[in-house]
Write a structure and sequence with these properties.
By secondary structure, the protein is of the alpha+beta class. The chain is built from two helices and two strands. The chain has helices at about 5-20, 50-60, and strands at about 25-35, 35-50. Strands 1-2 form a two-stranded antiparallel sheet. A hairpin with a 2-residue loop joins strand 1 and strand 2. The chain is elongated.
Length: about 60
């Protein structure tokens, strides 16, 4: 007998993996219109992880 995974099980496993491993999203952008740099810049860093994973793996790079 073959059992198929349900969507709920899959989402729980995915969330568990993300919180265990962590995801870091780092974005840097600037505004240039028609070749003119307006000096507007954005820097965004977002971490999705459990607190344990963040302190173990990402805290050093976050504070730099």
């Amino acid at each position: 007998m073959i059992r198929r995974a349900t969507r709920e099980t899959h989402m729980v496993d995915l969330l568990d993996r993300i919180l265990d491993k962590g995801i870091v999203i780092d974005v840097w952008a600037r505004v240039v219109i028609a070749g003119l740099d307006f000096g507007i810049r954005w820097e965004v860093r977002m971490v999705v992880a459990s607190f344990t994973t963040f302190t173990r793996d990402h805290l050093a790079s976050w504070t730099q």
